[in-house]
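Example complex used in Figure S2.
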Amino acid sequence: MRCTEAQTLIESYVDGELDLVRNLDMEQHLGDCSACSSMRQQALELRSRIRQEAPYFRASADLKEKVRAVARAERTESRRSWVPMWTWSGAVAAVLLLAVITFGVVRRAAESSRHQIITQEIVADHIRSLMANHLTDVTSTDQHTVKPWFHGKLDFAPPVDDFAAEGFPLIGGRLDYVDGRSVAALVYQRRQHPINLFVWTADGKYAEKLNRQARQGYNILSWSRDGMTYCAISDLAADEMQSFVDLLQK
Amino acid sequence: MRFEEAVLPHLDAAFNLARWLVRDSADAQDIVQEAYLRAWKGFAGFHGGDGRPWILAIVRNTCYTWLRKHSRRDLTVEFDEAAHTHETSTPNPERLLVEKTNRDVLQHALEELPAEFRESIVLRELEGLSYKEISEIAGVPVGTVMSRLARARARLRDCIAAADKGGPTCGAQKLKL
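Predicted assembly (427 residues):
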């Protein structure tokens, strides 16, 4: 190996990225050539300085906790899923599902579990939207700004109304995911309590009639109307949630 | 593999990369959270294997989106070698003294590198990733990774040499845009 070649390869050599043959050539050359050998020395010195002196910034306990919360939300969802990943619990669930099919009660069970899964997703979406400063993609109290923002992002136009006069101001909107598809999430506020209103095209799978649920400290009201399914979720008290829903249903 | 197992163990690596790229701890925290949310939503696209390059690629993209949004000008800045070899401004002696400690010289020099060069060094030296893994994360060919590393190292060496001679520190220099 010549010096010109050795010098272009010296960093790759120090990084352990040379193939076996060139690695051997390089070692031989370094044994013979003091100029290249001192270049290797420089490369090694720089590397050890960087490793010793450049700080490695570790995640704070606070960040760890927040990120774990994202994963926890995922775990509750996958546990409730009827099609879990191929783990042991997945196999057990599959066997159970088979038994359910044999007993012919599958339709009802599937419908109610589907409902549960969607509700759990909505709870998780709501929690995540509050957690990572990701409440809104479009921040505006003007319904004529928020509504057009959804154009081209969804295959339907969610109705957007502002209820500032009634104490539920619109603060923005964003895209979110429910049941494997994009949905509109409209964000309202009541005092310091954000309300997420998820809207998607009704498919008969969720909330035909008004349905009230409480999960993990959140009140969830869902209903369908004019071909759209709505689901409002917040930590507001049930009666305030009801008056919000009354406004929407007017 | 579950989301938790695939990416939670790499949280330190994720934060370290974000912190070096945006150079601010609070911003890096937000970015890592955002990246983990994106990762969560796109987890179906993860086909097993090592979760570290996968999550780091998402963190990196989230950082660049943030840098562009905050119009940090150190993005895709090309080195002007001539601009770095001549220092014209006289550095404040007090600041010089503070920066004289080894650690500061190196950290400063690294922070002043353009983002693409900085990330190559961080991923290679602090994370110990291979050229191939870095090329996947940065979305560039291996040859580009090699040339970025070479230029970044040459620049760091210059800064250290200048500091050893008692010359101006690299942190005080501005990159020519």
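Chain A touches chain B through 38 residues (CB under 8 Å). The mean pLDDT of chain A is 84.
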